[in-house]
Amino acid sequence: MQHGPAVRRRKLGAELRALRNSAGLTSGEAARLAGWHQSKVSRIETGTSGVKPADVRLLLDVYGVGDAQLRELLLVLSGAGDGTGRHHWWHAYRGVLPPTYRDFISLESQASAMRTLETTVIPGLLQTPEYARAVTKAALEGASEERLDALVEVRLARQDVLRADPPLELSAVLDEAVLRREVGGPGVMARQLTRLVEAARLPQVRLQVLPFSAGAHIGVTGPFVIFSFSRTSDLDVVVLDHLTSSLHLERKEDLRAYLEAFNALSVHALSPEDSLDFIAGAAAGA
């Protein structure tokens, strides 16, 4: 278990090491071709130090990597922009966002798919402005109106990943409690559930409801998020949120366990079609 930046450095280093091996180069040969000392290549590959996007570009050139998508992903992991002009947009909110939240947004912006179990609130990518404000206000009791405004702006800006080209593929299992918990009052909740119905009809969104009648299930241990990356599964990561921090699980056995848990939850949950009807019914009765 590590915090996000360390996970990304190590994953980036491992990928660069694999590319070097594929190119048939030793670390010393790669360093010589890049004009560096061998220790720099070693530090990058072990993730013990950060790496500049320019250094990643140079290594990719040395290794003869021409795959544009793979190059882009590795450059984004190193901190470079993704060419859309939106990458790292959250830096403008550095003063109000804790590092763990910034790192979560970074992963979210780079991922191709996201699986999430939610047991308490609507997923952030599907929240209305009113709902997002009510949730944020409850979580940060005493926060100023200015900070609340900024955090809601961030929550809404994050939702652009669902409208990107290609969009993030979102699969969410929602405990029925998420739909029954009245956040912000009846009006806010009714509009939020209507928004959820609209989202459930999007091709890039798959929603399933885990009804109370399902009884105890593996998800009672708490919510989690699994991020997947299209170019390489070695970059996949599980994120567990705590009150003051987030933990990132990257070991293959951890990823496998959470993927199996998510698949089990999907089996016990209502189908997407029945879930849509369930959410629509909840919205009508809200």
From TrEMBL:
Residues 16-70 form the HTH cro/C1-type domain. GO terms for molecular function: DNA binding. InterPro entries: Cro/C1-type_HTH, DUF5753, Lambda_DNA-bd_dom_sf. SMART domains: HTH_XRE. PROSITE patterns: HTH_CROC1. This is Transcriptional regulator. It comes from Streptomyces calvus.
